[in-house]
Automatic annotation (TrEMBL):
Similarity comment: family membership: Belongs to the B9D family.
Listed PROSITE patterns: C2_B9 (PS51381)
InterPro entries assigned to the protein according to its UniProt record, in alphabetical order: C2_B9-type_dom (IPR010796)
Name of the molecule in the record: B9 domain-containing protein 1
Transmembrane region(s): none
GO biological process: cilium assembly
Any Gene Ontology CC annotation: MKS complex
Protein species of origin: Halteria grandinella
Location of the protein in the cell: Cytoplasm, Cytoskeleton, Cilium basal body
Primary residence: cytoplasm
Keywords, comma-separated and alphabetical: Cell projection, Cilium biogenesis/degradation, Cytoplasm, Cytoskeleton
Length: 219
């Protein structure tokens, strides 16, 4: 026994890790291991339409934002639609019907996913300008949901800044709109005006929520 103890003492740390790794390859895993690794929230739908003040030929960009403990396992975090125009047949609405699909995984509801919209169009010189921003949380109940997002855009602090922005093709806009709108930090110091409303359709599916003592509730 003393001899065996001396041999073990000579083993390096890497040898011990290798033995543990080899032993781990023969462990039997079951479905409960997957359930304990986190719950899933699958979101699909489309940005349907919008009533936008003053602008036409509008493009819709979406970004999904979530907390640090959330990870994307499938789908796209961001996307950009086509430029759409108002028509009499749609009651002067801008119709995109731009789809999105994404799947999240987490172990904590803190930082529940949000979708952030940034609407832009082009002026007579072909320069992109912001028409409005908006954000809303992904519905917390499985099923089909319709959300109307109130849009707004920042305004210049002075008339001179507004005139210079018009000549430069850069109206007042946020430098990092996605993070600012999702975290709400610093928004209280900006001046904004209404920019209309956007309609978004959500289809939400959830998995393994009950394994973490979480039961979906109505938003």
């Amino acid at each position: 026994m003393h001899f065996q103890q001396r041999v073990d003492d000579k083993e390096t740390e890497q040898d011990r890790l290798d033995k543990l790794r080899i032993a781990g390859n023969h462990l039997n895993f079951n479905e409960s291991d997957e359930k304990n690794s986190g719950f899933h929230v699958m979101v699909s739908g489309h940005i349907e339409s919008g009533q936008i003040n003053e602008y036409d030929g509008i493009c819709a960009k979406f970004d999904f934002i979530s907390g640090t403990e959330w990870s994307i396992i499938e789908g796209n975090r961001t996307g950009v639609s086509q430029h759409a125009y108002k028509s009499q047949q749609t009651n002067r609405r801008v119709v995109w019907n731009y789809p999105f699909e994404i799947a999240f995984k987490s172990m904590n509801v803190n930082g529940w996913p949000q979708i952030v919209l940034t609407l832009t169009n082009r002026d007579f010189l072909g320069r992109d300008q912001v028409c409005g921003y908006g954000t809303v949380h992904v519905p917390t109940q499985p099923g089909t949901h319709t959300r109307y997002i109130n849009l707004f855009k920042p305004i210049s602090s002075s008339l001179i800044s507004q005139v210079l922005g018009w000549f430069n093709g850069k109206n007042a806009e946020y430098v990092s709109p996605t993070e600012l709108l999702a975290r709400n930090e610093g928004r209280e110091i900006t001046r904004v005006q209404s920019g209309g409303v956007a309609k978004v359709q959500f289809h939400v599916t959830m998995k393994n929520m009950d394994q973490f003592g979480i039961f979906p509730f109505k938003a």
